[in-house]
Amino acid sequence: MTLHHIPLTAARLERGLFDSRRRLNREYLAALQPDALLQNHYIEAGVGSQLWHLHPSRDSSRDRGLDRHWGWETPGALLRGHFVGHWMSAVAREVAVTGDGVLRAQLDAVLDGLERCQRESDGEWLWAIPPSVLRRLDEGRSVWAPQYNMHKTLMGLVDVHRDLADERALALARRATQPLLRWVRGHDDASFQRILEVETGGMLEVWADLLEATGDPIYRELLDRYYRRSLFDGLLAGHDVLTNMHANTTIPEVLGAARAYEVTGDDIWRRIVEAYWDWAVVRRGTFCTGGQTSGEIWTPPFAFAARRGEKTQEHCAVYNMIRLADVLLRWTGDLSYADYIERNLYNGVLAQQHPQTGMVAYFLPLVGGARKDWGSPTEDFWCCHGSLVQAHTRHAQLVFYADGDNETVTIAQFIAARASVPVGTATADLRLELLDEADDVGPDANAGAAGDRHRPMRTRMRVTVDAPASMRVRIRIPEWAEGAPETSADDLVTREGDALFLAHPGGRLSVDVSFRYALRAVPIPDEPTTVAFAEGPVVLGGLVDREVALTGDASRAPELLARDDERHWTRWLPRYRTVGQPVAIRFRPLHEIADEPFAVYFPVVGGS
């Protein structure tokens, strides 16, 4: 079964956890000023007012204000200018989904500025870094990721064109391509392969996008030139070319291979993507969170214990692996990819966004007693600031997928959302609600245990379909579900493998679906007596300031925790505490932990 996304304008989040995080992100996008976003582009083009140089430093970020950007965007920084491309991509998606007029006006101002920079340089160059960076690459001299940097601006322009049908953005990108085309043509194959070994950014993906958008054969030429043999041929030969390799230099390349397959149909690109996933995930495993990197490096296969530290799980790698899983879900319909996405959404994308400020944590530390190190609105601009703002504009598109004729819609993520899907000459409206468990107490509240007044251990949702004709709704059965799913319409719902199928007969129909779960222990792959704790897809963090060992039997680790502080007014809370331990530890969902020290993994000692 092949799937496709619901159109951007037809799927939208409803109130809930993911929408609240999206709103935080939207406020951050809107707070950034066009002139500040373009400060380095103006400097490179030699245009604009630069009176801010009269006061280049202040005592604090509060004194400096929000009108200039620092960190990786400081004038003179080697990656200056990279963030504006991420910002354009995020804003384009937010505007396409929500129709946000304020962001649209800001985006137009940024496009005005880029157009001016391109016009007043040489009619082509529009980046915030000089052409000399390409010469440094040619000469093998030290330079920090110029193609990564330039790709971001091209990516932003392409996304503005694709999501908003903005022809000006496409024209800017096409003119900017010309100096890069001449540069590439100035190299023979061997010398260009040496450059690709240094860095390529996501250029392969943008060439595929531009080929699709324009049909211009120069983009097919560039697509072929950016085939990195050492990586791609190694994968096709069945070699582990990832262990100890920088992760987020290769994931964008494979995302480029995926787009190359989708645009050209050449099967070799698909085989590269499938081989990459096999080595990156199937043959490697993951931390309990779904992440797989430490210090930005791929861990060895199923060897994670020695890689727990303060710099595990880079946010950019999490975001891009979610994108890759989404590709494979669409190609195959296999819902195991949706399980992978869910783990990384909760324990990566949400866990690495501050729940009050909306800022990003570059890494998610998995060493005991660490804290998340949060970025600031204008003082850092790490690469992960960019993947942060993009990630939180894309949740709605991960909920609903349709098959080729839209007669079957798949619900892949349990996120409150709605969608309108064309079916023949009609339209089907779907809504996914997460039901409030506040009043769900009593004999049936928890697996039928008579008189149990504790928090129900299940996810309940309501699927509402309003369509004039019959259609099917496919609902993922998550990997964490225990026991048989429960529905309010057993006569219309059947189970097939890893999914429930709702046969909608036409008209308006609402069906409740429930999946039970339990507190479970998740061992680190190569150290089975060191465990994390999870409920459903959500990993729990223990609030401790150091590495703490628990006493007990690792094979019965869930018995070491008891429910704690579980009810506030009308809300059930997923909280726990240790029992029978020398140190009392309270556990909270990892995505709710903001500034407290915490631990995810706990050695369990003393069991028989």
From TrEMBL:
Please name the GO terms of the biological process aspect recorded for this protein, alphabetically: carbohydrate metabolic process
Which PANTHER family is this protein grouped with?
PROLINE-TRNA LIGASE (DUF1680)
> What species is this protein from?
Microbacterium faecale
Specify the protein name: Non-reducing end beta-L-arabinofuranosidase-like GH127 catalytic domain-containing protein
- Domain named Non-reducing end beta-L-arabinofuranosidase-like GH127 catalytic: residues: 12-395
